[in-house]
Amino acid sequence: MKMFLLSIAACFICMSESFAQKTQIVYTQLSPQLTYSVTMLKKAFIEKGIPLGKSAFGMTVDLSIDTVRLEKEGFSVQNDGRTIKVSGGDGRGLIYAALYVIEEVKNGVALSKIASIKEKPHVPFRGIKYDLPWDTYRRSTALDLHKETCRDLKYWEAFLDMMVANRLNALTLWNLHPYSFMIRPKNFPEACPFDDKELKEWQQLFHGLFKMAKERGIDTYIFPFNIFVSPSFAKAHNVALENLEHDFYSGKGDTSELVRRYTRESVAQMLQEYPDITGMGLTHGEYMVGMTQPERDRWMNETIIEGMRLSGRKLKLIHRTPLSSGKAHGGSTSLETELETRKLLEKEAGYDFLEAPIWSEMKFNWSHAHSSPKLVKVHGGKAHGALFDPVTDKFKVIWTARNEDFFCLRWGVPDFVREHVKTNTAPYVGGYLVGSETYIPAKDYFTNPAISVNWKYAFERQWLFYKLWGRLLYNPATPDKVFQDEFVRRYGKQGVNLLTASALAGKTPLRLASAFDFSYDLSLYSEGFMALSGKGVAYISIDQLIMQNTADPSYMPVYKFVKATIDGESISGGKITPLMSATMLEQDCKEALSLVKNINTSNHTALMYEVSDIEAWANIGLHYAEKLRAAVALQTYRTKGGEQNKQLAIAHLQNALKYWDTLIAVTRPIYVDFPAVHLSQQGRRPWRENDHLRFHWEKLRSDVLKDADIAKSSVVISKK
């Protein structure tokens, strides 16, 4: 009898343990965001072997919306060891709460041990700038080759999943003239170049994209440039015939009443047919040459904004600022322009069909936000502050963090992004817009096709870039452990040092862009150690490095440093000299190389690429350090003589060549020669003239060699 009772007890214990392994997910409210949250939770639990089902002994995950305790996009997770209460201040916050649980489960934390947490958004706007590959602002094979990938909803599903996982909540889609890809205008059917079958395919793409974005709590904005019409519309009405293929974006657009009506009706119809679109964006530059600011304002009001009103919907608006203070295409700034812009933004905020606040979008440090976290300039020049003072709730600034500096190599420096966000999110700031204008993160056209990899899309290679910007915009206090854990999840113990190594080597492009003055996209390409010169975009020669002014005023140009040194002037004010930069680069890059030196990548291709990219950045940094030392020595020789200075410059340049050769050795086997927009646009318009050009660091070796010849042939210019 005793044995029988023991058997029953043992059986009961086994059954209890079996039941205890089951987890049930419960909820009362139903919404697209809740459905997405539940789907992602179930997927993560199944992948980790956590059985799902109702059990008196198991864990319960209870999902709900709590608008009393939590603000919009905020979330909390409360865990008493038996029930995990997953709560969001809205649908978006609920998703973030579920994603926190998923992240912990993937880290190997038992459900009963998941720590309770409560978070809220640091800024409300955390967006991606995305240039679509059709009817693009610039023209290049580097953009065209993404067309097939970007017409696949599987791609957008993956991209949107990445966005929401990183707390990114807005997707802005840019191209010159979007309407003809999305609708057949009722009063201008000739404007759409597609037959019914083709148009339906385009419409299925966009409807699917916007629907998936809404399910994930991601706002979507259509951002057209101005002033363009479709080629078929131009031919039918004999307008804009000089730019049928949209090869130029700097010119005088057709502002006739016909074009105004067509644009206005197209905007209204598009917004009616696509109810999941959240809003629109305005930009006042493209094809508006010769127009004054009031004339540009009138165009926008009578076309896009009026079309938004006619749609009958409540919409959000992104207004790109500052407006041009002249009649030219290129950007320019002035206090007067900012004051006029402020009046316009306040007027728009009063429209009852637009949600407040209006987002006033400005480029942070023009096209190169990955430089200094200090605001040095915006598009066109210095910001004068009229949009910042006094602070208003009617509109908020969103910084565009443009990345035109690295496309191929992986990048991630947590402290830089953290400092960027903390420094530049004053009360007048609503958030950030992150992305490129000359690179589309869709097709991976860098990776050697002979090498089998475990990713499909280009953005998956830059996972750390998106994770840093998204998570730190949501919460700048997010610890490095969150990012380090991702490396460990991917690569096990081999990934322990990768975040630190990435952060050290990844300072290379930041230091180059801080010490090298820039303006628009093509003026600097840090990854390639290239910049705009008299020969177009070319390798940064020793002469250019010597005479180049800096972007960040904390840095000293080489020529000023040498003059101050020779003149015996003291260098104060916390200035970073070229030799200080060289020392910092050398220390950081050598430490990064030391951290990855003993990582065994032979059995893991993705790990090999992570390590190789760190090695690539480190060798670019060491190359740059030697170039800086050479530049100081050569300029010193040219100014006051001393053969030892000349020989020192030559020696440093020879060392620089060695590091460049190591860079080639690291990248040549794993990366193909790839089309680079910066290269294809060196010539005159139209951009296609140089579209055959391809980039690889090996192709610049002859230019690197020339530096030593320049040093050898140098003479003393002015001896003191």
Number of strands: 16
Looking at CATH, the homologous superfamily of the largest domain is Glycosidases
Return residue spans where pLDDT drops below 50 for at least 5 consecutive residues: 1-20
What share of the residues does DSSP label as strand, in percent?
A: 5-15%
The tally of domains stands at 3
Largest sheet: 8 strands, parallel, barrel
CATH architecture term of the largest domain: Alpha-Beta Barrel
Classification by helices and strands: alpha/beta
Quick summary:
The chain is α/β, with parallel strands linked by helices.
Question: Top keywords for this entry?
Answer:
Chitobiase, domain 2, disordered N terminus, 720 residues, 8-stranded parallel beta barrel, alpha/beta, TIM Barrel
Give structural notes.
The protein has 720 residues and is an alpha/beta fold. It has three domains: 2-119, Chitobiase, domain 2, CATH 3.30.379; 125-478, TIM Barrel (Alpha-Beta Barrel), CATH 3.20.20.80; 507-712, no CATH class. The protein has helices at residues 2-20, 32-47, 91-106, 141-144, 147-150, 153-165, 196-215, 231-237, 257-273, 293-310, 335-349, 414-423, 458-461, 463-474, 480-491, 498-505, 507-514, 542-547, 558-566, 578-596, 605-640, 643-667, 677-680, 701-712, and strands spanning 23-27, 59-65, 75-79, 83-88, 117-119, 125-131, 170-175, 219-224, 279-282, 316-320, 358-363, 395-402, 429-435, 524-525, 530-533, 536-539. An eight-stranded parallel beta barrel has the order 6-7-8-9-10-11-12-13, surrounded by four helices. It has a five-stranded mixed beta sheet with strand order 1-2-4-3-5, with helices on one face. A three-stranded antiparallel beta sheet has the order 14-15-16, with no helix packed on it. Helix 2 links the parallel strand 1 (23-27) and strand 2. The radius of gyration is 28 Å and the shape is globular. It starts with a helix and ends in an 8-residue tail after the last helix.
